[in-house]
Amino acid sequence: MRIRLKSFSLWWFAICGLTLIETAHAVHPVAHLPVGVKEVVLYPAPPLIVVNDAGGKVDLTAARGHWAFVHFWAAWCVPCRREMPNIAQLQKRMQGQDIQFFIVNTADSEDAVFEFLGSVAADLTSLRDPDGSYTEGWRPRGLPSTFLVDPQGMVHYRALGGRKWNEAAYLDFLAELIAHSAKHH
Amino acid sequence: MRRVLLLIAMQALPSMSVMAEDWRYEDADVVISGNNRSPDQVASFYEGRGFPKAMIDEARQRCFIVWGIHNKTNHVLWMDLEKWTFTHGRAHVARTTRAQWFKRWEQIQAPQNARSTFRWTLLPETLDLQPDEGVGGNVTLAATRGPFDVEFSFVVGETRAKKIKRVLIKGVQCAFD
Q: Which of A106, A109, A160 shows the shortest C-beta gap to B116?
């Protein structure tokens, strides 16, 4: 009985140890975070079902298996105006990589979105959260706000305010996230 | 528990001579900037976003001041609007809170998208500003004639019981049409 218990304990510790190693990989895939990007205690991504420019619905759950860059903005928001061209460049630079972009306008009219993007980032298309209710569910600290959702659908990082996403530190960080996921799955 | 009280009084600022409605304060810990919006400016902002007349009329009755706060410390800067004071002479200038706006919008059955936009344009009631993080938004007050004082209160530190920082800006004014 004593031997059985001892053997059970050893197995239990071995399993826990492996789980811890796996969790450590999942929680800390990137050693150095760029300025303004914070790691969060993992939590499931809140629902996000938004409207695309053709009027169709887009659901974040469709991005499972890939990293998702979820960004909330509004046309009246001055920092959003500064940041949006950087996001447009980022999206171009990340083309073909295993990350999906959910650029979500919060509660503006279709015309306001069209006019805004035409003036700051003509190549970018945005999704819309027409009454802002999905955005509220994500509890952003303010606008603009960005969340990085991992391939398992867990919110992993959030970025504070507007960021220079087209700069090397951010591009390298995202590339490292994607590479890490590819290596471990 | 060691509490450090910093009280900084600001009577006149260089920027105030350029635009009487702008206020700015900066030290090693924080940058605070503010400017007021007249009822017409407030109305045109929200009209441009398709707000119904009832919401605009309600907004026009208040004093809108846009405050920007930037945390320059290497610690969390805890912000709680309940701790800020707005004083006109000996009288307290009432602030309309987010909850009070919510109640009002419920009463007039304001559309959801407009409520959402309005909420985003308000300064958050509470926030743990991270190092180098900034936040901005409207603080809405009872429309008050004449200058009043605003005392900003923050807690600096990873926990809420470290250091209290206070900044006093005098001569803040509502804008009128």
A: A106
